[in-house]
Specification:
6-stranded antiparallel β-barrel, two-stranded antiparallel ribbon, mainly beta, homodimer, about 140 residues
Chain lengths: ~140, ~140
Amino acid sequence: MKLDEMSTFALEPVGFIRSTVKGRADAPRQGAEGAPDAWLEIEPRFADSLLGMEVGYELIVITWLHEANRDVLQNHPRGDESRPLTGVFYTRSPARPNPLGLHPVTVREIDRARIKIGPIEAFDGTPVVDIKSASTRADVTAD
Amino acid sequence: MKLDEMSTFALEPVGFIRSTVKGRADAPRQGAEGAPDAWLEIEPRFADSLLGMEVGYELIVITWLHEANRDVLQNHPRGDESRPLTGVFYTRSPARPNPLGLHPVTVREIDRARIKIGPIEAFDGTPVVDIKSASTRADVTAD
């Protein structure tokens, strides 16, 4: 398949975060430290993708940070203006052209198509677009 | 913003991988071991997002695995049918509803809006949709 620079790709939510973190005021300021656990509710049509999931597994959850500003290319790390302006491709700022969030988490509990994961710093209602094993060795398949 | 389950999100490529790995026959079978370095060509309108990038930095590159099968919810790890069928949310298989790839890499060289990164197991022409610092501590900003 040939792709040109005008292509776009459509992501669909595979689930949603249900968290006590309702907005910025509730969010810990630095990474996931002090962040709570949250439920990840998988959309029914993707529930079969959980086969084999177990409590204690380590995952990377990829979210779509739907409230982020997609027009920002540079900002001051941690919003601290004394720090030099930095391109968003060398930050973890939510503001970026495609506002994807990466969250390393542990599975705490499994209840059919809901999994409790944490710690995770993500607002209630945040769409989840992918979930992977955190290990690059365990389960790689060729297709 | 209220999102419902019918929402989709549009990703646009921020760059493309230019690699000697042209297809499956060239690809190392297990993770990034033995994978080559590759150039990541940033789209001109996103070049300002590289400000501050330096050789030696560790990044997470997120690709769109445009050749992956999006209808697969379960498969056999490493394509080995003696292994139990596993949901794609606990594998690193490219096959998954939203075929995002995660690649931890080191910056080897910077040439204006091209950065040489590696090692990376990604086919030539693979679209890149996001780039982040590998550190969750260094540069987090609030917006």
